[in-house]
Amino acid sequence: MAKNPNPKYTVPGVDLKDAARLVDVLRLRLHALNDLHLTLKHVHWNVVGPHFIAVHQMVDPQVDRVRDMADDVAERIAALGGVAQGTPGALVSQRTWDDYSIGRADAIAHLGALDLVYSGVILDVRGAIKEVSETDPATEDLLIEQLRDLEQFQWFVRAHLESAGGSLATGGTHTEEEAAARASDLD
């Protein structure tokens, strides 16, 4: 049996060719969300320092919501007639980003790295919204709802990284390590 067969059926009003394209877009979103909830849990387990409890407790509801987002995307893939691949092997082989690079570190360092992670995920969701908007309003709506939550989570992270003057500690950084180091300079 093929791992990624083209849909043999789909929802009313969406043709099979469009359904296959929608499934391809959503498949990468599923991998990104599964990766994100694992990354957030990694941060939850490896955060240390004086801001430990605030970040430890802030991240868990994000983990839960991102897991729900992944479930919603997987179910949309299935409704469109596709196969929702939720295995680690599929995630690793199909993702277009590197693994999270920060291990045990202080809370602010993790938040600096997470700011960049959220930026990447949010930009990709915005691109996916543009890609599906002409074809399927239901998929577009699902992604828009998730975008709002992801942007709110990034705002929670950035509130710890912003100066009273409105400067973001991670501004201009390009890697998680660089963002983590710059954010750690706040403490």
Automatic annotation (TrEMBL):
InterPro entries: DPS_DNA-bd, DPS_DNA-bd_CS, Ferritin-like, Ferritin-like_SF, Ferritin_DPS_dom. It comes from the Bacteria. Signal peptide: none annotated. Residues 29-162 form the Ferritin/DPS domain. Residues 174-187 have a biased composition (Basic and acidic residues). Pfam families: Ferritin. Residues 167-187 are annotated as: Disordered. Belongs to the Dps family. This is DNA starvation/stationary phase protection protein. It comes from Streptomyces similanensis. The lineage of its organism: Bacteria, Bacillati, Actinomycetota, Actinomycetes, Kitasatosporales.
